[in-house]
Design brief:
Length: 327
């Protein structure tokens, strides 16, 4: 199944609405749809509106603070602050934190990422600089912060403030709530292209080694934890249905991005701002389902169908479009 065909099929679906509760995210063109597949050898195949304006990575960037802290402090310290279980609730559930807290269920829901941002040291500029350094390492290039979205996040972030105060009341969050939230909002406002976004899951797919290179960026232990949490928690309260359909560990963001990992093969990033009621990109789901089904990228199939070449599957040949193949 060629990537172009998957994107074209997704465009026929006009369901979903943007994340209007963050006003700046409601101002994007609804029709924009793009996808990038980065193979572990560094080859990147793109389709759709890949040259459109950059977009913010939102909650998909929670992987940055998780991976960075795992590398610097190790899993024992990280999991003293957050759990590792699916929440079964929405990504910003206050009720879940009150009834099952004080520790957030996992690091990929809002309360979990806020708790981890509370572990960053120094002033707000120093914390934001830490986020930017790790973003550059994981995305393979410098990643900017969209200041308009950052301001919109601050102005509409009352639910996240409620989560942060619950964390502080429960002894999980130390220090100033607003300073922690400034770092968290900056994390969510990281902004780039769909191709840049694909580098992070490709890095994870390549066991922590830079795609197309030999530099190790993450340890295998960190990769194992991050990818496992993506599989169980990365799509919030649709994680189970999504994993059954695609078999690709993934992380969504309410801008309309989803990043997905095909271990040993590729990283995928898809973007379209039309969201379902769980905060996942409607068209992004379609693209990922099509790729999984036609390329055999479900985790239960990937070893036999791709690594060993069963059924003649070739990820680079089958994902690339006729136009790209002809140069």
């Amino acid at each position: 199944m060629r990537l172009d065909a998957a994107v074209a099929k997704s465009r026929r679906n006009r369901e979903g609405v943007p994340a209007t509760y963050i006003p700046e995210l409601a101002n994007v063109p609804l029709g924009v749809t793009s996808a990038a597949v980065m193979l572990v050898d560094g080859t990147c195949i793109r389709s759709g509106d890949v040259d459109a304006l950059p977009f913010t990575y939102q909650s998909s960037a929670k992987l940055v603070v998780l991976a960075g802290l795992l590398e610097e402090r190790g899993p024992v310290e990280v999991f003293e602050i957050v759990g590792s279980e699916p929440s079964g609730d929405t990504f910003a559930s206050v009720a879940r934190l009150e009834t099952h807290g004080p520790k957030p269920a996992n690091p990929l829901i809002n309360s979990g990422a806020i708790a981890l941002c509370g572990q960053l040291r120094g002033s707000v500029p120093e914390r934001v600089a830490w986020v930017s350094r790790w973003a550059e390492r994981l995305y393979g290039t410098a990643i900017g912060i969209d200041q308009k979205v950052l301001g919109s996040e601050r102005g509409s972030g009352d639910r996240n403030r409620a989560l942060a105060y619950f964390l502080k009341a429960g002894g999980v969050l130390a220090g100033d709530v607003n300073e922690t939230l400034d770092a968290y909002f900056a994390l969510c406002s990281l902004s780039g292209s769909v191709e840049q976004a694909a580098h992070l899951p490709a890095l994870l797919a390549n066991s922590g080694v830079k795609p197309g290179g030999s530099e190790r960026v993450l340890t295998k232990a960190t990769v194992a934890i991050v990818v496992s949490l993506m599989a169980t928690c990365g799509m919030y309260n649709e994680s189970g249905n999504y994993l059954v359909a695609t078999g690709m560990p993934a992380k969504s963001g309410v801008s309309g991005i989803i990043v997905a990992v095909v271990p040993g093969v590729a990283g995928v990033a898809v973007y379209s701002p039309r969201l379902n009621d769980k905060g996942g990109s409607v068209r992004g789901h379609i693209i990922l389902r099509e790729l999984s089904r036609h390329l055999g990228w479900h985790f239960a199939l990937v070893q036999g169908a791709l690594v060993h070449g069963a059924d003649g599957a070739d990820p680079e040949r089958d994902a690339v479009s006729d136009e790209e193949r002809e140069g």
